[in-house]
Amino acid sequence: MFMLFIISFIIVPVLKCCGTETSTYTTQYDEVDIKEIMDNERLLVAYIGCLLDKNPCTPEGKELKRNIPDALQSDCNKCSDKQRENADAWIEFMIDNRPEDWTKLEERYNPDGSYRTKYLESKHNATSNVDESK
Predict the structure, then answer these.
(1) Angle formed by the axes of helices 41-51 and 99-109, to 10°?
(2) Where is the signal peptide (predicted)?
(3) What pTM does this model have?
């Protein structure tokens, strides 16, 4: 299940729209190591700053920032499996470990909070399923 690509948003492989309704985002950046970014404070702060227009963006950050609205609106239907996987990992990390930054990103890209709700419901369901299997 795809939760929030936002901010996912952030730093997930950069998405680049190819122009048609059935097109997919570029997979050029699918091999970006999202864990490396999440584990590196300098990189993490740089990407967050990029998405919040507080500092310059890398080419990957520019593409990501440009495509977040479309990805959110379409529930990432143009995303590759790797992009969805990275988006999910990013969202989980941000909500659980950097809630202040998540809130800022959410205010900008998902003001109704719908993707946080999806994530929390998914997390609750996963926990419930683990409890039931014991």
Answers:
(1) 20
(2) 1-19
(3) 0.72
